[in-house]
Design goal:
By secondary structure, the protein is mainly alpha-helical. It has one domain. 81% of the residues lie in helices and 0% in strands. The chain has 5 helices and no strands. Helix 1 crosses helix 2 and helix 1 packs across helix 3. The longest helix is centred in the middle third of the chain and has 26 residues. The protein is elongated, with a radius of gyration of 16 Å.
Length: 137
């Protein structure tokens, strides 16, 4: 259990840093240009925090912990990419279906970003998690 909490902390930290760099620096103007017509003046931080906690828990449950148990980095990589595509795709395709003028480009970029982010978090978490001492997950 302690190992799981440590790995969760690693995964959450990596997710936050990488995603905040993406949102805050790399893709900031992209989202402003594409979605400025519906963006809030400031984020709903409670919703954002709940999303981060839930998404990382999902990554841990479906990808990272099985990867630590099976020691298969290639399978973990694939699972992370699939989970990222499914989760970000669910959000973006729902928006595309329901929000007038939702940009297709945002949907494509977000799905790719969900895959990349999930893979990065998974790879770091599995590699670091292997170095924690507890023999059981």
């Amino acid at each position: 259990m302690i190992r799981t909490l440590k790995v969760y902390g690693v995964a959450l930290s990596v997710f936050l840093v990488v995603d905040l760099v993406w949102i805050g620096f790399i893709a900031r103007t992209f989202y402003q240009d594409q979605l400025g017509f519906i963006l809030a003046s400031s984020p709903n931080w409670i919703a954002a925090i709940i999303f981060y906690l839930m998404f990382v828990a999902g990554l841990l449950f479906f990808v990272v912990l099985p990867g630590l148990k099976n020691k298969g980095l290639k399978e973990s990589f694939f699972r992370a990419a699939v989970l990222g595509a499914l989760t970000y795709g669910t959000y973006d395709l729902t928006n595309l279906a329901l929000i007038e003028s939702w940009p297709v480009l945002v949907t494509v970029v977000d799905i790719i970003w969900g895959m990349i982010l999930s893979v990065i978090v998974c790879l770091v978490s599995v590699k670091v998690g292997r170095h924690f001492d507890s023999p059981s997950i």
